[in-house]
């Protein structure tokens, strides 16, 4: 009887929004459309998004992922990942006569433009972000002489600037909002004249996923975040969940990585996924949990998302040209039938 009560109380709180953001959706579709339009192989510089399953699925369809532009055969097509690239990468690609499709998320491009603008005005730019992350390498590359990386609150004491009256902070798009505010507060203490970016650099998708998992985490004994280990925004979701009161939290690529031992004494399991994660992987986790008595799923959705981005312009141009050509062929076909 005691067991029955425990079983019936078991539940899952499923966070929403979760999973694909508009920038990831656009980047993944760009690779798929490029494969259809130009045929395999299509080269992609770096993982198009930081998700194992997405990368493996696209590889099966004929995408070849490389680390550097120099690995792409001259004259081929290369897609730049959603995380963005430094201008020098565009130059390298041009030198190798590569046709490029830039799948950089427009919200990353926005931060690049801010960096260019503040560098032109000769500001010292304090870029809050994680050392070595591709997005940070790309953004810094817009103005290498003006950008200093600040990797969290602990890094603030090391920061040096040329002129304290001309300092601005910018950030990576996928950081923890709370930790970034701590970093900014610490920077402001050191540099009282520090100015803020014109609008939020941490994007809408990152913010919304963190708000949703906080609500879920406050009631959860265990939070499972679906996402890959190199996905910054996914890793942040685990940290945010723990910070918001979840007793335990783990990041998994697949349901098969969940350890049964995590469920010991657990009544409520919170579930979410990073911005690069297809929902089919979350469905796998929900099935795995249902098989173990956690079949009651309640969605916790503090807000709706409606953002979408149009495909990269190089691809839109070619898809339009093809559609026009197809219309032309169809017209000829009709003429032929009339004759
Ligand atoms: O490691 P990240 O969270 O930056 O990347 P992701 O590919 O897991 O998610 C999409 C986020 C992008 C492209 C950065 N703005
Ligand atoms: Fe764009 Fe934000 Fe998605 Fe990154 S996480 S791809 S910035 S929408």
UniProtKB/TrEMBL annotation:
<feature type="binding site">
    <location>
        <position position="83"/>
    </location>
    <ligand>
        <name>isopentenyl diphosphate</name>
    </ligand>
</feature>
<dbReference type="GO" id="GO:0051745">
    <property type="term" value="F:4-hydroxy-3-methylbut-2-enyl diphosphate reductase activity"/>
</dbReference>
<feature type="binding site">
    <location>
        <position position="83"/>
    </location>
    <ligand>
        <name>dimethylallyl diphosphate</name>
    </ligand>
</feature>
<dbReference type="InterPro" id="IPR003451">
    <property type="entry name" value="LytB/IspH"/>
</dbReference>
<dbReference type="Pfam" id="PF02401">
    <property type="entry name" value="LYTB"/>
</dbReference>
<feature type="binding site">
    <location>
        <position position="232"/>
    </location>
    <ligand>
        <name>(2E)-4-hydroxy-3-methylbut-2-enyl diphosphate</name>
    </ligand>
</feature>
<feature type="binding site">
    <location>
        <position position="203"/>
    </location>
    <ligand>
        <name>[4Fe-4S] cluster</name>
    </ligand>
</feature>
<comment type="function">
    <text>Catalyzes the conversion of 1-hydroxy-2-methyl-2-(E)-butenyl 4-diphosphate (HMBPP) into a mixture of isopentenyl diphosphate (IPP) and dimethylallyl diphosphate (DMAPP). Acts in the terminal step of the DOXP/MEP pathway for isoprenoid precursor biosynthesis.</text>
</comment>
<feature type="binding site">
    <location>
        <position position="233"/>
    </location>
    <ligand>
        <name>(2E)-4-hydroxy-3-methylbut-2-enyl diphosphate</name>
    </ligand>
</feature>
<feature type="binding site">
    <location>
        <position position="232"/>
    </location>
    <ligand>
        <name>isopentenyl diphosphate</name>
    </ligand>
</feature>
<feature type="binding site">
    <location>
        <position position="276"/>
    </location>
    <ligand>
        <name>(2E)-4-hydroxy-3-methylbut-2-enyl diphosphate</name>
    </ligand>
</feature>
<feature type="binding site">
    <location>
        <position position="233"/>
    </location>
    <ligand>
        <name>dimethylallyl diphosphate</name>
    </ligand>
</feature>
<feature type="binding site">
    <location>
        <position position="233"/>
    </location>
    <ligand>
        <name>isopentenyl diphosphate</name>
    </ligand>
</feature>
<feature type="binding site">
    <location>
        <position position="50"/>
    </location>
    <ligand>
        <name>dimethylallyl diphosphate</name>
    </ligand>
</feature>
<keyword id="KW-0004">4Fe-4S</keyword>
<feature type="binding site">
    <location>
        <position position="83"/>
    </location>
    <ligand>
        <name>(2E)-4-hydroxy-3-methylbut-2-enyl diphosphate</name>
    </ligand>
</feature>
<feature type="binding site">
    <location>
        <position position="133"/>
    </location>
    <ligand>
        <name>(2E)-4-hydroxy-3-methylbut-2-enyl diphosphate</name>
    </ligand>
</feature>
<keyword id="KW-0414">Isoprene biosynthesis</keyword>
<feature type="binding site">
    <location>
        <position position="231"/>
    </location>
    <ligand>
        <name>(2E)-4-hydroxy-3-methylbut-2-enyl diphosphate</name>
    </ligand>
</feature>
<comment type="similarity">
    <text>Belongs to the IspH family.</text>
</comment>
<dbReference type="GO" id="GO:0046872">
    <property type="term" value="F:metal ion binding"/>
</dbReference>
<dbReference type="GO" id="GO:0051539">
    <property type="term" value="F:4 iron, 4 sulfur cluster binding"/>
</dbReference>
<feature type="binding site">
    <location>
        <position position="133"/>
    </location>
    <ligand>
        <name>isopentenyl diphosphate</name>
    </ligand>
</feature>
<keyword id="KW-0560">Oxidoreductase</keyword>
<feature type="binding site">
    <location>
        <position position="105"/>
    </location>
    <ligand>
        <name>[4Fe-4S] cluster</name>
    </ligand>
</feature>
<dbReference type="GO" id="GO:0050992">
    <property type="term" value="P:dimethylallyl diphosphate biosynthetic process"/>
</dbReference>
<comment type="pathway">
    <text>Isoprenoid biosynthesis; isopentenyl diphosphate biosynthesis via DXP pathway; isopentenyl diphosphate from 1-deoxy-D-xylulose 5-phosphate: step 6/6.</text>
</comment>
<feature type="binding site">
    <location>
        <position position="21"/>
    </location>
    <ligand>
        <name>[4Fe-4S] cluster</name>
    </ligand>
</feature>
<feature type="binding site">
    <location>
        <position position="276"/>
    </location>
    <ligand>
        <name>dimethylallyl diphosphate</name>
    </ligand>
</feature>
<feature type="binding site">
    <location>
        <position position="173"/>
    </location>
    <ligand>
        <name>(2E)-4-hydroxy-3-methylbut-2-enyl diphosphate</name>
    </ligand>
</feature>
<feature type="binding site">
    <location>
        <position position="50"/>
    </location>
    <ligand>
        <name>isopentenyl diphosphate</name>
    </ligand>
</feature>
<feature type="binding site">
    <location>
        <position position="231"/>
    </location>
    <ligand>
        <name>dimethylallyl diphosphate</name>
    </ligand>
</feature>
<comment type="pathway">
    <text>Isoprenoid biosynthesis; dimethylallyl diphosphate biosynthesis; dimethylallyl diphosphate from (2E)-4-hydroxy-3-methylbutenyl diphosphate: step 1/1.</text>
</comment>
<dbReference type="GO" id="GO:0019288">
    <property type="term" value="P:isopentenyl diphosphate biosynthetic process, methylerythritol 4-phosphate pathway"/>
</dbReference>
<keyword id="KW-0479">Metal-binding</keyword>
<feature type="binding site">
    <location>
        <position position="133"/>
    </location>
    <ligand>
        <name>dimethylallyl diphosphate</name>
    </ligand>
</feature>
<keyword id="KW-0408">Iron</keyword>
<feature type="binding site">
    <location>
        <position position="232"/>
    </location>
    <ligand>
        <name>dimethylallyl diphosphate</name>
    </ligand>
</feature>
<dbReference type="GO" id="GO:0016114">
    <property type="term" value="P:terpenoid biosynthetic process"/>
</dbReference>
<protein>
    <recommendedName>
        <fullName>4-hydroxy-3-methylbut-2-enyl diphosphate reductase</fullName>
        <ecNumber>1.17.7.4</ecNumber>
    </recommendedName>
</protein>
<feature type="active site" description="Proton donor">
    <location>
        <position position="135"/>
    </location>
</feature>
<keyword id="KW-0411">Iron-sulfur</keyword>
């Amino acid at each position: 009887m005691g067991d029955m009560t425990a079983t019936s109380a078991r539940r899952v709180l499923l966070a929403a929004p979760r999973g694909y953001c508009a920038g990831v959706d656009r980047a993944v579709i760009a690779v798929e459309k490029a494969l259809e339009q130009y045929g395999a192989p299509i080269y992609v510089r770096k993982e198009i998004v930081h998700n194992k399953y997405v990368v493996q699925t696209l590889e099966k369809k004929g995408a070849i992922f490389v680390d550097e532009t120099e690995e792409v055969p001259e004259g081929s097509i290369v897609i730049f990942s959603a995380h963005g690239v430094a201008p020098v990468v565009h130059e390298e690609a041009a030198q190798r006569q590569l046709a490029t499709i830039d799948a950089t998320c427009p919200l990353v491009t926005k931060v690049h433009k801010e960096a260019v603008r503040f560098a032109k005005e000769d500001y010292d730019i304090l870029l809050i972000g994680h050392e070595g992350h591709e997005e940070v390498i790309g953004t810094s590359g817009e103005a290498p002489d003006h950008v200093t990386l600040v990797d969290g609150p602990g890094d603030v004491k090391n920061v040096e600037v040329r002129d304290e009256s001309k300092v601005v902070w910018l950030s990576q798009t996928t950081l923890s909002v709370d930790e970034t505010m701590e970093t900014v507060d610490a920077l402001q203490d050191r540099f009282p004249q520090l100015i803020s970016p014109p609008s939020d650099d941490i994007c809408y998708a990152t913010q919304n996923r963190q708000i949703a998992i906080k609500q879920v985490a406050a009631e959860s004994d265990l939070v499972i975040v679906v996402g890959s280990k190199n996905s910054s925004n996914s890793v942040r979701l685990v940290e945010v969940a723990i910070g918001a009161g979840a007793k335990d939290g783990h990041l998994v690529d697949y349901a098969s990585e969940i350890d049964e031992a995590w469920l010991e004494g657990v009544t409520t399991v919170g579930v979410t996924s990073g911005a690069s994660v297809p929902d089919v992987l979350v469905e796998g986790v929900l099935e795995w949990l249902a098989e173990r008595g956690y079949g009651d799923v309640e969605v916790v959705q503090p807000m709706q998302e409606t953002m979408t981005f149009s495909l990269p312009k190089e691809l839109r141009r070619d898809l339009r040209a093809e559609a026009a050509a197809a219309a032309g062929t169809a017209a000829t076909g009709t003429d032929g039938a009339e004759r």
